[in-house]
User: Fold this.
Amino acid sequence: MANINLLPWRDWERERRQKEFLGLVAAVLCLAVLLVVGFVTYLNMSIEGQKGRNTFLSTEISVLDTKIAEIQNLRAQREDLLARMRVINELQGNRPVIVRVFDEMVQTLAKGVHYQKLQMTGSSLTVSGVAESNNRISTLMRNLDGSDWFAQPNLKGIKEAPSNSVYGQQASTFDLSFIQTNPNEVMAENP
Assistant:
């Protein structure tokens, strides 16, 4: 058998493989570092991009909030103007009604009765006056009840006033309340 010494060749091969292995490990480490750095850079860029989008959305939201506040202000002004217009229209519509109420007050006034005080609260009227006799007050109440413009006459109080110089011994003072109605509205509600 031949005497061959393979020991240096094995050492050389082992060194070559070890260098190759270390080279591969170094290459894999470099690649891993590059991948980590690239991934971190990508994440930072994504975060910055999202921050930019968030900033843009925040500014747009603040612009929209100011527009919404402006719209709400305009709606409040619109409602205020509509309420004013309703009041004006109501006053314009009620203008002839007041004249008609006073005309009807004169037409329902019984002979021998004088009004001293007239007060209107909403649609309720309160009258204080002097009458020649209690019969005149009841005639006034019948006239008010028969009117299309007045309803529910209610005598609150009656007192004798014999010292009245105009009507004499049988004179009476009275307090009367009744409600003002509008026959045109009643007809509109019940066609």
About this structure: The radius of gyration is 51 Å. The beta strands are 113-121, 124-131, 150-160, 172-180. The first helix runs from residue 7 to 108.
